[in-house]
Amino acid sequence: MPAPAGPAPSPPEPLFGDPAFPPGRAAGLARLAHFVPRSGAAYAAGRNTDPGPDQPGAVSRLSPWLRYRLIDEQEVIAAVLARHRLPDCDKFVQEVLWRTYWKGWLERRPAVWSRFIEERDRQRDNPPDPLLLADAEAGRTGIEGFDDWARELVGTGYLHNHARMWFASIWIFTLRLPWALGADFFLRHLIDADAASNILSWRWVAGLQTAGKTYLATADNIARHTGGRFAPRGLASEAVALVEPPIGAAGPVPPAAPAPPPDPALLLVTADDLHPEALWTPGHPVAGVLVVDDPALLWGDRARGFVNAAMTDTAARLGAHFAATPSLRTGLDASGLVAVAEAAGVRHIVTPYAPVGPVADALAAIEPTLAAAGVALHRVRREWDEWFWPHATKGFFPFKERIPAVLRELGLT
Questions:
Q1: Which strand (E) or helix (H) includes residue 169?
Q2: What is the dihedral of CA 167, 172, 178, 184, to 10 degrees?
Q3: Contact of 112 with 106, CB cutoff 8 Å
Q4: How far is CA 356 from CA 108, 161, 197, 310, 359, in A?
Q5: Distances 401 to 109, 223, 341, 398, 407 between C-alpha atoms, Å
Q6: Known binding positions
Q7: Are 298 and 272 in contact (CB under 8 A)?
Q8: Closest by CA position to 12, among listed 331, 290, 232
Q9: Which residues does the annotation say bind FAD (predicted)?
Q10: What stretch of H or E contains 346?
Q11: DSSP string, 188-231
Q12: I need a labelling partner for 216 at 20 to 30 A (CA). Which of 34, 101, 321, 341 fits?
């Protein structure tokens, strides 16, 4: 399995001290509670405006907690719909569902993930303009706004969604740098670095995701939605879509593993879902809890630092929930899992379903060894994903039409 970022990762810091994004479920729930009153008209009116770092804005800034499912999409939408009618908060609901849509889309087309890794590695080994690439990543291009966002991303691990779109458009169409290296730059620095949301968003800007449809950043749009902070000159006046070989028709959503029998099992926790207690069947005996903080499965030090601290929070929470002492491990390796399972006398390991990305690749790589040792790996998928992912067949707009009906089926409206 290729490493997410190429070079061997440095060890994560033991604590994540960014006050803007305190790790842990309680912090995410507090951020959600603070945002809910503003998730209706205020969000719809101001969501495209980027006031700048450390300035109050209309967006929720919940993405780090959602990315690692310290809080999950269903409870976020439930909280918002408890305060607002769906027509009054539909812009925010759709924003959350974009994340779900991207994941469902990639589940049905995993070859796009493999193609990205191959393209990134090829471009990294032989970039077309190494000096320009270095200047773009360091914020030294001379393009107003773009350079500021590059420094903001590296310095804070976060960018407003609209700034992410402007940045990607300038990277691809003005600087003419490879889109895969831009997506990789984001993945290496975003706290909320996510395979599906990030890679597919860059593809969308480039005209690959919806073939021929691109996103062009303009000076007027940037000035209007940054309160006049930036009005860059010399931007590309047209965005000619990139092209690629066909990716083939979408396949079905892969089936989740069969439900585990009611025998004692180990709970395996990875960075892709840090609220697994919500998935555990009440009464199912827990033989042990393994929390795997593997820095090789995350892209950058900011993501690793956030997850490292969030894992500590998760372990404490799970220890109280299951009345067990979780084991913290730093590597997702088959031999270690087999040894723990044998020591506990169990033949079943249960883990939240990992969508397409590094964790899913790692689980697929170790599963044959587990099976050969007589240990079954059960991936449990969330109800939210089971309901929504099958509708990620084409573009977002057909998917969007299904949102009200699925929310009714889930009992949220």
A1: helix 161-169
A2: 20
A3: yes
A4: 9, 22, 11, 21, 8
A5: 21, 32, 45, 5, 11
A6: 43, 92, 192-194
A7: no
A8: 331
A9: 43, 92, 192-194
A10: none
A11: HH-TT--HHHHHHHHHHHHTTTTTT------HHHHHHHTTTS--
A12: 101
Please name the residues in contact with 146: beta carbons below 8 A apart, sequence gap of 6 or more. Answer: 136, 139, 166, 167, 170, 171, 174, 232
Cα separation of 314 and 321, whole Å? 10
Do 57 and 51 touch, CB atoms closer than 8 A? yes
Q: Which two tokens stand for residue 395?
A: 């573009």
Distant-in-sequence, close-in-space partners of 343: CB < 8 Å, separation ≥ 6: none
**Those residues with Cβ within 8 angstroms of residue 236's Cβ, 6 or more apart along the chain or in another chain:** 169, 170, 173, 174, 216
DSSP for 8-74, written as a single string: PPPPPPSS---TTS--SHHHHHHHHHHHGGGTTHHHHHHTT----TTS--SS---HHHHHTTSS-HH
Binding-site positions for FAD read 43, 92, 192-194
User: H-helix or E-strand containing 379?
Assistant: strand 376-380
The vertex-106 CA angle with 105 and 112, nearest 5°, equals: 125
| Residue type for position 240 | V
DSSP conformation class of 170: I
Query: How many residues make up the chain in this entry?
Result: 413
Tell me the C-alpha distance between 200 and 106, whole Å.
8
**End-to-end Cα separation, the chain, in angstroms:** 42
Instruction: Please state, in angstroms and rounded to a whole number, the distance separating the CA atoms of residues 379 and 42.
Output: 39
Ramachandran region, residue 357 (left: φ > 0; alpha: ψ -120 to 50; beta: rest): left
What CA–CA distances, in Å, run from 223 to 29, 42, 49, 394? 33, 21, 10, 33
Domains assigned to the chain:
113-225 (1.10.579.10), 265-383 (3.40.50.620)
> Which pair of tokens denotes residue 105?
């889309």
